[in-house]
Task: inverse folding
């Protein structure tokens, strides 16, 4: 084989590998218009590198094994996990909760979201989801949920729930029944991003904590492509970390560009904005 032929064959192979690494268009099942093809383009787009800039440090229950965090209006909702220690709480973000419900000991609480006048709470492997009164948090009904429950958020513009299950998959669901309506595989520069955990729907994007790291990714749910990687490391001091401490909780503050961020067994929660990773100086640095 001549050098020219060898190089040409290598170029063809590289192109084939690039195509093979791209998410198939049919992964975005809810996107029949063909926008999923953008995933092929997005897969090779530069991923924006961001970090968190702390505006304020807030108290957080250091015993809360945080699995869900979301704001609706001025109320912060939080779900905690572990069998025998699971709960859901609600109240002002800077004060102790004004409502709190403890789950039966066998249930392991997971992601929550407030799509309207009720709150959905997932369980990890109990195969049910619980609908609750948004004010009292009292249980209204249970529905079957055969998948592992991890994170959840409500994408208002598409009127659908987005859920994670620890894999690289985001599942879209009917907000009234939790029935599956579609799914997309999350990729970063063409590679799947697994262990997607707590979620947040904000504007047209979905943010996901990546277990067990201090990283949050911003996802285009139309294609699954990661559009930004957010470094949230270094928020706690070393003496505040305990075994099991893990970043897991992101809640957009309505009407602002701010987010509340906390984690499992974290003694603090942080009000942050996202800035370029290259930006230095300013409050909170
Ligand atoms: Ca959230």
Result:
């Amino acid at each position: 084989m001549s050098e020219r032929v060898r190089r040409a064959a290598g170029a063809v192979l590289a192109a084939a590998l690039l195509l093979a690494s791209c998410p198939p268009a049919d992964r975005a099942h809810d996107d029949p218009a063909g926008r999923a093809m953008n995933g092929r383009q997005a897969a090779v787009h530069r991923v924006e590198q961001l970090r968190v800039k702390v505006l304020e440090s807030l108290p957080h229950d250091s015993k809360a094994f945080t699995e869900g965090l979301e704001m609706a209006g001025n109320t912060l909702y939080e779900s905690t996990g572990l069998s025998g220690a699971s709960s859901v709480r609600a109240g002002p973000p800077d004060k102790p909760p004004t409502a709190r419900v403890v789950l039966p000991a066998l249930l392991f609480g997971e992601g929550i979201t407030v799509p309207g006048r009720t709150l959905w709470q997932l369980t990890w492997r109990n195969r049910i989801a619980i609908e609750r009164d948004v004010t009292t948090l009292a249980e209204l009904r249970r529905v079957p949920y055969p998948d592992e429950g991890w994170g959840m958020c409500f994408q208002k513009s598409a009127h659908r729930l987005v859920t994670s299950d620890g894999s690289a998959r985001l599942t879209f669901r009917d907000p009234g029944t939790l029935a599956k309506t579609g799914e997309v595989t999350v990729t970063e520069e063409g590679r799947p991003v697994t262990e997607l955990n707590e979620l947040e729907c904000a504007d047209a994007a979905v943010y996901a904590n990546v277990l067990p790291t201090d990283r949050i990714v911003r996802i285009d749910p139309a294609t699954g492509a990661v559009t930004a990687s957010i470094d949230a490391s270094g928020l706690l001091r070393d003496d505040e970390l305990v075994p099991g401490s893990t970043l897991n909780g992101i809640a957009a503050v309505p009407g602002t560009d701010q987010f509340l961020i906390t984690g499992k067994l974290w003694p603090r929660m942080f009000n942050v904005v996202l800035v370029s990773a290259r930006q230095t100086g300013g409050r909170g640095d």
In short: Residues 1-43 have pLDDT under 50 and may be disordered. The pocket of calcium ion is lined by residues 69-70, 153, 198-200, 250-251 (CB under 6 Å). The two ends are 58 Å apart (CA to CA). The chain has one domain: 3-276.
